[in-house]
Specification:
Length: 103
């Protein structure tokens, strides 16, 4: 019960970071395809989240609240990752990733 109360105080970004740190996350099919297309490994996105910078939180996004995060690859190349919170199953989901020059 205390954990649930703590999470209510936490930002969406904080919740997603915590879930990913606890390895409670999934990678969506779309994200999996984008990772392959862009030559990024899943572990790089997961590892980058810890030092990532929140761009925007979208708590009212449908079907799940989402956060856009600026992350960096080991070589310094920056990219945006979109993570969502699947509330019913209480896991984070990597929705998509893209390089900033692709916008």
């Amino acid at each position: 019960m205390a954990q649930v109360k703590d999470q209510l105080k936490m930002s969406l970004f904080g919740i997603i970071r915590q879930l990913v740190a606890e390895e409670k996350y999934v990678v969506g099919q779309h994200a999996s395809e984008r990772l392959e297309e862009r030559g990024i490994m899943e572990w790089q996105v997961v590892a980058g989240l810890g030092d990532g910078e929140r761009i925007v939180e979208r708590p009212d996004a449908l079907p799940n609240p989402a956060v856009e995060v600026r992350e960096a690859l080991p070589d310094g190349t920056e990219f945006e990752a979109v993570w969502s919170h699947l509330r019913q199953s209480h896991v984070a989901k990597l929705v998509t990733i893209h390089f900033f020059d692709e916008e």
